[in-house]
Amino acid sequence: MKKVAILTNGGDAPGLNAVIRAIVKTAENNGIECYGFIEGYKGLLNNDYVRLDSAGNASGILNRGGTIIGSSNNTNVFNLKTVNENGEVEYKDFSDKCVQNLKDDGFECLFTLGGDGTQKSSRDFSRKGVNCIGIPKTIDNDVAATDITFGYNTAVSVATEALDRLHTTAEAHHRVMVLEVMGRYAGWIALESAIAGGADCALLPEIPYDINKVVEKINQRKARGKNFSVIVVSEGAREKDGELSVKRTLDEGKGLDNVRLGGAGEKLAGQLEEITGLSARTTVLGYVQRGGTPSAYDRVLSTKYGVKAMELAMEGIFNVLVSYKHGEMTYVSLDDVVGKDTAVGAASSKNRTVPMDDPLIDTARRIGICLGD
Predict the structure, then answer these.
(1) By percentage, how much of the chain surpasses pLDDT 90?
(2) Which residues are catalytic?
């Protein structure tokens, strides 16, 4: 093996640069050249790439957030939105052009750093003969077949610090403070930060909540002289028989997340203020969770992921996802990660949500955190 390429795709996450650095260093130590496609699959389509060098552009990036080679979250090359000469919108499959680019460039392996959508495309490329190795990236921690994704620990730490700060203002003003965190389909961030930050309620996508249960928790605290409460809510949380809080819907094509969530926290705060009579305020943590310096844990985890990925490439093990299971780095088939949907350009059909028998659920309940059910 002489040449490999990396792309980072989807939303950014703390630790992406640490993974890149680990791949580059491991490659160089074995006489392998490493390159990076600019802006994810968009760079692959445009054949836009740069040489990565641990003594140059890949130096000093261990502690940097974001990604030095950029990312794209609206480029599904298997079903890409285009505008023809008549101004009409069409969706075309440009995957064969991407495959040809890889062949022409002489890349023997493509590392895909991303979440479920990124790995779905990676699996589809593998079926076209490309040697792909996926590395799971999402702060939501919802990529199937791995215990933890890099970036998640940092996101939980940021959310926990926010809760620490919200506690003081909640107590000072006798308010209900609602913190909305990321988590479209999975409530890992909300659940773990609620435990770490001493929240009174944690509302997750996995448990449609009863507003009356939340009110009951607040009133129990009022009866004990606690005239304030702190609540964490995932952006994908919804009431029983209710709908997701959708901010807007895009039309970027099949296989992409076209729904932009927003408003779950604001909706909840409004209801609670009306029912309880307490002043309620909302803080939407948003992109603060995924930006900035990765935690020490994520730096180490990312480095492990990068080293393992390069080792698999040198061993000739392709079309897999690097996986962290039971404290060890291993790998699983990309088919096991993205589900059984074989339609080209379709979205991944699998997500790692919080199971109801997870120890975190039991821990939260035992210390009195209301989960809305």
Answers:
(1) 73
(2) 140
Beta 80-83 vs 89-92: how paired, if at all?
antiparallel
Token reading at 162: 């926010």
All CATH 3.40.50.460 domain ranges in the chain, comma separated? 155-289+356-366
CATH of domain 155-289+356-366: 3.40.50.460
Q: Which CATH architecture has domain 3-150+292-338?
A: 3-Layer(aba) Sandwich (3.40)
The full length of the chain comes to 373
Q: Where in the chain is the domain with CATH 3.40.50.450?
A: 3-150+292-338
- 200 and 217 in contact (C-beta within 8 Å)? yes
CB 287 within 8 A of CB 260: no
pTM for the full predicted model: 0.90
Mean pLDDT for all residues in the chain: 91
